Amino acid sequence: MTSSTGTFIVFEGGEGAGKSTQVALLRDALEAQGREVVLTREPGGTPTAEAIRALVLDVAHAGLDARAEALLFAAARAEHVSALIRPALERGATVICDRYIDSSVAYQGLGRELGADQIRELSAWATENLAADLTIVLDIDPVVGLARAGQVSDAPDRMESEALSFHQMVRAAFLNAAAANPATYAVIDATASPAEIHTQIVARIQA
Ligand code: TYD
User: Fold this and answer.
1) pLDDT tens readout for residues 143-160
2) Does residue 1 fall inside a structural domain?
3) Is 158 exposed, middle or buried (0-12, 13-18, 19+ CB in 10 A)?
4) So what's the pLDDT on residue 17?
């Protein structure tokens, strides 16, 4: 099910793809057109979901069980959708979300090898089938992305600390999702300049 009145735009991509820069640029552009925009992120977006985020990304929990991890991301998402995203869409806002279900499919389903289908099913249940209207994949080679992310923060979180092969699997998962649903995905080369990437995103949204 997609939103009936508002528009739900999701950004996906690996570490260091520049999502936070692009979500902010898109918010500014849409607000300049007079739209109500809700910019949010996963895991997080509400006080409870942000508390789950702090827990699940904390390197202190290095050995966290993979299923427990998947359920924590799903719990944060359930709260986020019911308390913030769905109400915003119902009043006609544009919601821009930094990461959503495809991140769980990529990181927990493939990265942690829990199974893409099972994670998709768990996410559908957690969100009562709320799907994005458009997903923008900022695609980057993880070798480049992890180096970029390392320059931004010198304290990698639990996910950033994973092996390169893990991040390569995550990248492939986003590209596969996009290839399977070209009508609702846009894949953008994240090595272009921020201004060029933004132009491509706006063009895709207007189309
Ligand atoms: P964040 O600092 O937001 O990463 P980024 O800036 O790259 O978006 O941290 C979110 C991390 O959580 C990121 O490594 C991806 C991971 N994640 C999952 O493993 N599963 C999920 O369902 C979500 C939403 C995120």
Assistant:
1) 999 999 887 777 888 888
2) no
3) middle
4) 94
